[in-house]
Amino acid sequence: MLSKFPYLRQDFLASIVVFLVAVPLCVGVAVASGVPAELGLITGIVGGLVTGLMRGSSLQVSGPAAGLTVLVFEAVSEFGVATLGLIVLIAGLLQLAMGFLKIGRWFRAISVSVVEGMLCGIGLVIIAGQIYAAASLKAPETGIGKIAGLPGAFAEAHGNTEALASLAIGAGTIAVIVLWKKMPKAVQSVPGALAAVVLATLATLALSLPVATVQVEGLLGVIQPPGADAFGALANPAIWGTIVAFALIASAESLFSAAAVDRLHDGPRTEYNKEMVAQGAGNTVCGLLGALPMTAVIVRSSANVNAGAKTKASRVLHGVWLLLFATAMPWALALIPIPALASILVHAGWKLIPFRGIVSLWRGHRGEALILVVTAVSIVAVNMFEGVLIGLALSVAKTAWEASHLKTEVIDKGAGPIQVYLSGNATFLRLPKILDHLEALPQDRPIELNLSRLHHLDHACRMALETWAERHSSPDTDPVKVTTNT
């Protein structure tokens, strides 16, 4: 047995660690998304038993992710829980198609600034929204409304006993998570988030605090395959934007996570197209079960690697433990205080904000830093899908502008011909600047235009330069002499 599975012990122990990390996150993401807690566990189970068995990234762990919480909440609010499964199902089929068409590796070309801006914006919305949940207050619907309403929410909570008790549990949960890293190594073998939830649950029970807890419906009770009514929603054009957003954002997050996980271990590298197929298969199954969408999750993945996992057996086993927990101990979910789960997501949202990345980008690449900030602000101000599109558009515009970088050098020695050197990339974007320089040259002097230093000369620029050269010189002056690479 051991000769056939030489890493069984390491993978078994790693699976326990990943399971303990996954439980509070699966439940917390589901509650924050506005769906039954069990749906988060179902997605985690599928991530282990379906995606976990497939090829792609052997040590990456998939499940419900905080990064999709905002999008899922918006989709549930607009289209209903019954339609969520259909959205996830079609998004999964799109991922399968992209994987089979070998589009997976192209996601690596997405600007890192856009991805980090997306995560930053999501983090801000999660933090703002979950503070309301931690205080047992209703959150405004928009991202800006959530942030702008925080002072009023704290003022409202100040005179409310139930809200203060909830905030105390939430603050205590975050304190445990932060301080847990300073505990002895033996104690840290229990994940901080799990320890925080257990302690918050015990405190709520011992002190009989008036704090809301998770509503439990049972694993089979929440499974809701897409019905005829859900398919009728496809006639609404708005739903297709949500489907595409699910597919693209889940894919980008998964493949960027895979690149990060590859840097954590020395094992086989990720096969990006196969990982896309694995994610698509998982989301297709989640959609058929009416569950949350899945992505690869860096928190669980890094826990898996750090716990000593060697093969994909660890992530498959973590799915088995989630299934056993959801079927044998559903009563345990009903004891968990919602403020504790909200605080776990506040902590997760904080970690999504790349503070150091913003500072380093601003020092070395201010254009990229601007794209990051604009993407994040757009997600907060509008919504996630349109915010990401704005970030991508800015990234493309910046790249196009940089690709058209051009230097014009004019050498006039007072006598003889005026020498003009163009270097870089001459595209239509720089054509007005080129012509301003050239048309300012005197017409009664010979001109030598040297184009040999150009890396690229597009058709529009070539035609404009030829036209200028023909018309520039006065009748008694030598024609413009043009030197090219050819």
Automatic annotation (TrEMBL):
It is a multi-pass membrane protein. InterPro entries: SLC26A/SulP_dom, SLC26A/SulP_fam. The chain crosses the membrane at residues 12-32, 79-101, 113-133, 163-180, 192-212, 238-261, 320-350, 370-397. Residues 8-375 form the SLC26A/SulP transporter domain. The keyword Transmembrane helix applies. It is found in: Membrane. Keywords: Membrane, Transmembrane, Transmembrane helix. PANTHER family: SULFATE TRANSPORTER. This is SulP family inorganic anion transporter. The lineage of its organism: Bacteria, Bacillati, Actinomycetota, Actinomycetes, Kitasatosporales.
